[in-house]
C-alpha cells in the first residue's frame, strides 16, 4: 500500500464527483485514496465529511475500500438511508466492478463461493468453518499478453471480498500487495525506448490496486435506478498502456 498517497493526490470538489442527484439520493464516482467513512486516525479527508458539508443530512449507504474508485451511494435523508441499506442487506443491489489482474485468466461465469472471516484490523481470511457466506461471479472482459481485465459481480458484500476471492484463483489484482498482487511498471511492458534518469525511482503506472466500482442497479419505491461510473485517470491510463505495449 502506498503510504501518504493522499498527499500527492489533489482532491476534486465534491460537486464534481456527483453523477446523479435527486431529492433522496446522491451518487458519486469516488476517487481513489479517499476513505468512504471516518477512520480511527481522525483528521483525514473522507467522503462522509465532504458529503455532509455539501448536504447536512448526508449518510454514506455502503463503503468502498480507500484505494477502490467508483460508484458510491449517499442518502439525503434517514428513510432513503434505511431503504438503500435494506436493499444491500437483502442482496438486491446488482454491483459490477472491473479489476485488472496479473496473468491470463479465462473466467466464464466463474462462481467463487468461499466464506470470509473478518479478523478485525482490516484483515480477512477464507474460513470454511467460521467465515460468513461470500459469493462472487467473475467474467473475463479483455486479454493482454500478461494481464487480464475482469468483471466482478459480488453477490454478498464482505470486506475485501473481490480481492481475496481473486487471490484464491491465483489472479491477484495488480498492485494489491496485501494479496500478493504485483505493481506494473512501464519498463516491464515497454521493452524498447524506455528511459528514466538515474536519480529517479520508477513509479508504478497505477499507485494502488486496480479495482473500480463500475455500475450498480437497484429498485427503490418501485423506481429502477441504474448508474455507471467512468474509469478514473489512473485506471484508464493503465488500460491504455496495456493496450499499447502488452497486446
UniProtKB/TrEMBL annotation:
PROSITE patterns referenced in this protein's UniProt entry, alphabetically: PSI_RLU
Gene3D superfamilies membership: Pseudouridine synthase
Origin superkingdom: Bacteria
GO molecular function term, any single one: pseudouridine synthase activity
Residue intervals of the Pseudouridine synthase RsuA/RluA-like domain: 24-167
Keywords on record: Isomerase
Swiss-Prot/TrEMBL GO biological process terms: enzyme-directed rRNA pseudouridine synthesis
One matching Pfam family: PseudoU_synth_2
Family, as annotated: Belongs to the pseudouridine synthase RluA family.
PANTHER family (alphabetical): MITOCHONDRIAL RNA PSEUDOURIDINE SYNTHASE (PTHR21600), RIBOSOMAL LARGE SUBUNIT PSEUDOURIDINE SYNTHASE D (PTHR21600:SF44)
Name of the featured protein: RNA pseudouridine synthase
Amino acid at each position: 500500500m502506498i503510504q501518504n498517497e493522499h498527499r500527492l493526490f489533489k482532491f476534486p470538489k465534491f460537486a464534481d464527483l456527483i453523477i446523479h442527484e435527486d431529492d433522496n439520493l446522491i451518487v458519486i464516482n469516488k476517487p481513489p485514496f479517499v476513505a468512504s467513512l471516518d477512520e480511527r486516525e481522525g483528521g483525514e479527508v473522507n467522503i462522509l465529511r465532504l458529503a455532509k458539508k455539501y448536504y447536512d443530512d448526508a449518510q454514506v449507504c455502503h463503503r468502498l475500500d480507500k484505494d477502490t474508485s467508483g460508484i458510491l451511494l449517499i442518502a439525503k435523508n434517514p428513510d432513503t438511508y434505511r431503504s438503500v441499506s435494506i436493499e444491500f442487506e437483502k442482496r438486491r443491489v446488482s454491483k459490477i466492478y472491473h479489476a485488472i489482474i496479473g496473468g491470463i485468466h479465462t473466467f466464464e461465469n466463474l462462481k467463487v463461493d468461499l466464506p470470509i472471516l473478518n479478523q478485525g484490523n482490516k484483515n480477512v481470511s477464507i474460513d470454511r468453518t467460521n467465515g460468513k457466506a461470500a459469493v462472487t461471479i467473475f467474467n473475463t472482459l479483455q486479454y493482454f499478453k500478461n494481464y487480464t481485465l475482469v468483471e466482478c459481480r459480488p453477490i454478498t458484500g464482505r470486506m475485501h471480498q473481490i480481492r481475496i476471492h481473486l487471490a484464491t484463483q491465483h489472479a491477484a489484482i495488480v498492485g494489491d500487495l496485501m494479496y500478493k498482487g504485483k505493481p506494473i511498471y512501464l519498463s516491464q511492458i515497454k521493452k524498447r525506448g524506455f528511459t528514466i534518469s538515474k536519480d529517479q525511482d520508477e513509479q508504478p503506472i497505477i499507485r494502488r490496486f486496480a479495482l473500480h466500482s463500475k455500475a450498480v442497479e437497484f429498485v427503490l419505491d418501485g423506481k429502477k435506478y441504474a448508474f455507471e461510473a467512468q474509469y478514473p485517470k489512473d485506471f484508464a491510463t493503465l488500460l491504455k498502456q496495456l493496450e499499447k505495449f502488452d497486446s
